[in-house]
Write a structure and sequence with these properties.
The complex is a heterodimer. By secondary structure, chain A is mainly α. In chain A, 75% of the residues lie in helices and 3% in strands. In chain A, helix 1 crosses helix 9 (216-231). Chain A is globular. Classes of the chains: A mainly alpha, B mainly alpha. Chain A binds chain B through residues 84, 87-88, 91-95, 97-99, 101-106, 108-110, 112-113, 214, 222, 226, 229, 258, 260-261, 263-264, 267-268, 270-271, 274-276, 278, and chain B through 57, 59, 104-105, 108, 110, 112-114, 116-118, 121-122, 124-125, 128-129, 131-132, 243, 247, 250-251, 254, 286-289, 291-292, 294-296, 298-299, 302-303, 306.
Chain lengths: 286, 325
């Protein structure tokens, strides 16, 4: 039993890394464009399908297929900004939320029409690493390391480049950023493209772990969403920390009881946080 | 304004007469079924808009629908407890749940986006709970009501009975809306929406008024869910609990216009009809395709009619009547 919990703990940490990457995209979009991307998990699902198609139908080598999938998702991100978010920039909050929620219907059913309702995956045999009684799947480890490295690059991008400065400026004070000569529309496109590419990257990390089906994204949208709000909306560090908290809690609870109970516990933690500290773990009071 | 009210009054009388006559003119049982669904969802969407029009946008009404649908159904299947009473047990449980949730939210001063987010999480908890207790609730496969065909079990040989039950409920919901409009509750809630602190300093009991409208909205929503379950005789977390149905109720009310009394009805009519139309015209082989068209239509309507159909219409009419301003 102890080994099982320890293993769940390690898996939780490893999963937390990937969830942190997932939450980062959502958080970035929220922080900069001030929109809750309700269909983010569905984008991961779409990215997964792209990689699947590139690899199995078009016989492109897997790594190249992943790179293409990431690029395609970046393009989808730009299209989302162009077709859905731009017309709604000044609309009431609720309308923006519902518009992106209706995007869920579109994307899920698009996947159903194109790829069917079957579970699809790319069979890969990844070695299992053993430490005494503890087994770790190397696919989890690769995803974790990849996610942390990506997050580090994103940190450098936001803090050390001129473009990153522009993105942070728009997130902090839109009017002032405009006054400084930043075109927010361009920043929005770049943000959505980055967010889209990140969803593609998360999909790439998921390829050796999961199989995909049209409703694959739903649970990830909610999880990413819980993480972002739990850590403080728009606060990237808070999202990073809460990804690990949520990852560990859900993974340990899932071993102790069931997956549904694990999700319920995560949601109850989220509700409790909202009651006590609505600005989230590291958020600042608005 | 006078002129609009007069036209509106006659319009509503005509609408009512048409709605009463409709099931006798249209005898197709399929169309009657769709009309019943429209009225049931209109009722639920109206109950949802009670709260939403005062700035309390709940994305978690799925929990009340779920409680209202599951409790009477399960009590009937397991204990043969008649739905005639079971429904009210379900409504009572939903109201009690709303009291706990509402008090927690309002006591901690959750407003706007945060309220919406918490209720969204609550909706997902309701669906997950149904799935976690899959031995008793049937989990995500759903749960079918035992068929007896007896009136004492709320099962009628003529399905049109449910049409009239739904119609009466909708009229009741519209009547309550009007009563709220004429009562101090509306003024209090409007003041609270503008500024809770200012309202409280003027002696308006913020939590009490918010609780009042929340309990009313939750109770009516649960009643709608209960009747939906009795009518369709099948419940599942996807169709009557969780995030999906909560959002679809919002869609209906917002597309129709949640600040006008008939908005939720108009929105439900359009969405249910559109969903059925694309489903039938595409056929079963392109089930996904019809949903894509449905989703895109929703998207277009949200982008181009931000105030909802009734909202945009009444704005256009009042502009026409008062050209001076």
């Amino acid at each position: 039993m102890f080994e099982q919990i320890l293993m769940a703990l390690i898996n939780g940490i490893l999963l937390g890394g990937v969830l942190a990457l997932l939450a980062f995209g959502l958080n970035l979009i929220f922080g900069v464009v001030k929109i809750i991307h309700m269909a983010y998990g569905q984008f991961v699902m779409l990215g997964f399908y792209f990689i699947y198609t590139f690899h199995t139908s078009w016989h492109i080598p897997l790594l190249l297929a992943m790179a293409l999938g990431i690029a395609a998702m970046g393009l989808i991100g730009i299209l989302t900004q162009l077709l859905v978010i731009n017309p709604l920039l000044n609309a009431p909050r609720l309308n923006q939320l519902l518009a992106l929620a209706s995007l869920i219907i579109v994307v899920e059913n698009l996947a159903q029409v194109i790829w069917g309702a079957d579970y699809r995956g790319i069979p890969l045999s990844m070695p299992i690493i053993q430490f005494g009684e503890i087994f770790i799947r190397s696919s989890f480890l690769i995803a974790f390391i990849g996610a942390i490295v990506t997050l580090w690059f994103l940190y450098l991008f936001l803090n050390r480049t001129y473009l990153g400065l522009g993105i942070r400026a728009v997130a902090q004070d839109l009017e002032m950023a405009k006054g400084m000569g930043i075109n927010p529309k361009v920043i929005y496109y770049i943000t959505l493209m980055t967010g889209g590419a990140l969803s593609g990257l998360v999909a790439a990390f998921f390829v050796p772990i999961y199989t995909v089906h049209p409703h694959f994204g739903a649970s990830f949208t909610l999880m990413a969403f819980v993480i972002v709000v739990f850590g403080g909306m728009g606060n990237l560090m808070g999202g990073f920390i809460s990804a690990f908290i949520i990852g560990i809690v859900t993974s340990v609870t899932a071993v102790l009881s069931s997956k549904e109970v694990a999700d319920i516990v995560a949601l109850l933690m989220f509700i409790g946080m909202m009651m006590v500290r609505p600005e989230g773990l590291l958020g600042t009071e608005s | 304004m006078q002129a609009i009210n007069k036209y509106g009054f006659y319009g509503q009388i005509i609408l009512l007469v048409v709605l009463v006559m409709l099931p006798f003119i249209i005898t197709s049982s399929y169309l009657n079924h769709i009309m019943t669904l429209i009225l049931l969802w209109s009722f639920v969407a109206t109950a949802w808009a009670y709260m939403a029009r005062f700035g309390m946008v709940s994305l978690g009404h799925g929990i009340f629908l779920g409680i209202g649908a599951y409790f009477p159904t399960m009590m009937f299947n397991y204990w043969s407890f008649t739905p005639w009473i079971g429904i009210w047990v379900g409504v009572a449980i939903a109201v009690a749940t709303a009291a706990v949730l509402g008090y927690a939210c309002f006591r901690f001063g959750l407003l706007g986006d945060y309220f919406a987010l918490v209720t969204l999480a609550v909706a997902e908890v309701s669906a997950l709970t149904i799935m976690a207790f899959r031995e008793t609730t049937g989990g995500s496969l759903g749960y079918t009501l035992r068929a007896t065909g007896k009136i004492s079990d709320m099962q009628f040989s003529d399905k049109r009975v449910y049409y009239f039950i739904a119609l009466i409920l909708l009229i009741g919901a519209v009547y309550i809306w009007r009563r709220i409009d004429r009562s101090p509750i509306r003024l209090a809630l409007t003041a609270i929406e503008e500024s809770e602190i200012a309202a409280a300093s003027l002696g308006v009991s913020v939590i009490r008024y918010k609780m009042m409208i929340t309990l009313l909205s939750a109770g009516l929503t649960a009643l709608g869910g209960a009747l939906y379950a009795q009518y369709v005789t099948y419940v599942s977390p996807d169709t009557i609990a969780g995030v999906g149905v909560s959002l679809s109720v919002c869609f209906k009310a917002i597309l129709g216009g949640m600040f006008t009394v008939l908005g939720p009805f108009v929105g439900s009519t359009i969405i249910v009809a559109l969903e059925e139309y694309v489903r039938i015209s595409m056929g079963a082989s392109f089930l996904g395709l019809s949903q894509i068209i449905f989703g895109i239509s929703l998207l277009i309507m949200i982008i181009f009619l931000p105030k909802g159909i009734m909202g945009s219409m009444s704005l256009a009419i009042s502009r026409k009547l008062n050209r001076i301003d």
